[in-house]
Design goal:
single chain; mainly alpha; Na+/H+ antiporter like fold; two-stranded antiparallel sheet; 14 helices; 2 strands
Amino acid sequence: MIKTTKAKNKVLNVIKEFITMESFGGVLLLFTTILALIVANIESIAPIYHSFWKSNFGFIFKEFSATLTMQEWVNDVLMAIFFLSIGLEIKKEILIGNLSGIKKAAFPIIAAFGGMILPICIYIGINFASDYKHGFGIPMATDIAFALGIILLLGKRVPVELKIFLVTLAVVDDLGAIVIIALFYSGGIELVYLLSAVFVLLALFLLNKFGVKNMVVYIIGGVFLWYFVHHSGIHATIAGVLLAFTIPLRTEIVSRSPLIKLEHVLNPLSAFFIMPLFAFANAGVTIGGEFVVNSITIGIFLGLVVGKPLGIFLFTFLSEKFGIAKKHENLSWLHILGAGFLGGIGFTMSIFIATLTFDGGLLAESKITIIASSLAATIIGIIFFKAVLFRRA
């Protein structure tokens, strides 16, 4: 009994540390985004900034090549590690967390689906007659670091249950984004590499099944998995998620599990290094040029700022009315709508999907719109909470 209590306390401490990291990580993310925008718009520095991220780095040994641009090292390699940390969080939530029971998980899961489906519908509806329909994944994502950071900055007047709701929603949202990337944002499939990736993945699952807990084995296997996935035509970051689901989680002594230990290492790495570096590498767009308002920018903006809150609110409201899921008694519908506004902060994942979708001027316009939409969602969310929820405080 004592051991179980200690294990639960350690898990709770890990969750608290995760929330703290995410909130500070959001501040750091904002700083690196602003820095990238400043650097990219200073005439004397901008060429150096852009040429650095396009420069090649790596090595070639006989037939083996590991040469990528600096931006690809960030977007394909480091982001695979970031997706590994997301995958670990998803697996933990499914097995022992807020997604472990259908009744417990139904409400935020439905909220997440609503927050993905309605933005996609809005974007596709606006771009139905254009050649840009494939950008539908851009407005469906929520940036947990920014959204949770804003919630925590609002103070103790925000119910704990709302923070849990937002974290759970974002985890499901991330899972949805991962599935969309795998299905719709991958290139032509190379069968030999794909089969090799499947073989490595099955081997890692077997290691888990037979009780192998040595993380070195899984990391080495993960490197091979990344290499084969990268060359298979599926985006390399998916390898991080696949690897996460092979990492053992010993539920009888949770605090000693390889999954919890690895997550404890990767969370600060993701929050304080990978995500800020991703923002610095990808948010640097030149604002001085002519910005064109088109179906892409309108679809992204309305998807994030309007589609997200409406989707989250409507789906949860209808689910409770039809008895499918139940809202926590400490949460009001205004809480859910406020969380929906903050769900419109797409940023990291939205920019990531944009880099897989567009290039050149369309990519620059998409990034500017994502940043503007996320800023608008932040402002609306803060004003909403301050004016509506805290008016009696």
